[in-house]
Amino acid sequence: MRKHIVAGNWKMNNTFEEADELISNIVDALEEKELDRNTQVIICPPFPYLEMATDYSKDSYFLVGAQDVSTEDKGAYTGEVSAAMLKSIELEYCIVGHSERRQYHNESNAMVAKKVDQLLKNEIRPIVCCGERLEEREADKQFEVVKQQIEEGLFHLTAEQFKELVIAYEPVWAIGTGKTATPEQAQEIHAFIRNLIAEKYGKEVAEEISILYGGSCKPSNAKEIFSKTDVDGGLIGGACLKAEDFIAIAFSF
Ligand code: PGA
Predict the structure, then answer these.
(1) Phi and psi based region of residue 195 (left: phi greater than 0; alpha: psi -120 to 50; beta: remaining)
(2) Which of 95, 129, 130, 235 to mutate to test the pocket of ligand 1 (most atoms within 8 A of CB)?
(3) Residues 32-61 pLDDT 10s
(4) Which atom of ligand 1 is nearest to 240's Cα?
(5) Which end of the chain is more exposed for a tag (fewer CB within 10 A), N or C?
(6) Is 170 a catalytic residue?
(7) How do the domains of the chain map onto residue ranges?
(8) What is the distance in angstroms between the CA of the first residue and the CA of the last residue of the chain?
(9) Catalytic pick from 100, 136, 170, 190?
């Protein structure tokens, strides 16, 4: 059975005190009710809170991820954070290629490929985002766009490396808009992605990869979306900022 994953992408939210409170509420909620063993909760706070989060995670049932990583090893890259640094504080995951990085920081598929390589070299599992913009969906180009993102960002990997990935399909028009893809729309693209992987790496690899849905996922719609065959969980933005909502989503399988 593929792993179910619910990952919280905090984006640029919360002060240190708020971060501390949110994580400690998540710890409490996970203590209260036992999560299914096949479900993995991951939180991805901003860089300054990663170490606090990894400290908390040692006594709880969640893992910690970063939201981005540098394409480079080390050196004169002001403001950047390397994969080796993330590894040195024992991070297990890192989001790569989020649409906000692509949009506001001109992150290309080639950069996504380099970041994925950096993470794999440091034994951190990449959560790789893909997804079409509204105008691309309206022009019925969603399959083409997602295919190109996956091929250019990931298909240089070996099958062994590919197995370390988590993929998140996030239609840009659904992120932070309150507009969710229908469970059928999500399933359609998830199956398409799994099929692309199967064609390149074989069915066995494709069946192992967790593919998450992201875009206005919340407690009221998570169950229906997660019930689809090829949807293995969610990458949660807005709703992960309230421990109660985030944990409710983790219990939606
Ligand atoms: P959202 O964000 O849940 O607020 O739509 C999801 C994401 O960007 O990962």
Answers:
(1) alpha
(2) 235
(3) 988 999 999 999 999 999 999 999 999 999
(4) 3
(5) N
(6) yes
(7) 4-250
(8) 13
(9) 170
The pLDDT tens digits of the residues spanning 52-85 come to 999 999 999 999 999 999 999 999 999 999 999 9
Smallest CA separation from ligand 1 atom 1, residue:
237
Which of 184, 189, 197 lies closest to 169 in space, CA to CA?
Answer: 189
**CA–CA gap between residue 228 and residue 121 (Å, rounded):** 33
CATH fold, domain 4-250, is TIM Barrel (3.20.20)
* pLDDT at residue 1 greater than cutoff 90: no
**What separation in angstroms does the CA of 160 have from each of 20, 41, 91, 157, 201?**
37, 24, 20, 8, 9
Q: pLDDT band for position 177 (50/70/90)?
A: confident
8 A C-beta contact, residue 47 and residue 13:
no
Tracing tokens 């065959």 back to the chain, one arrives at 229
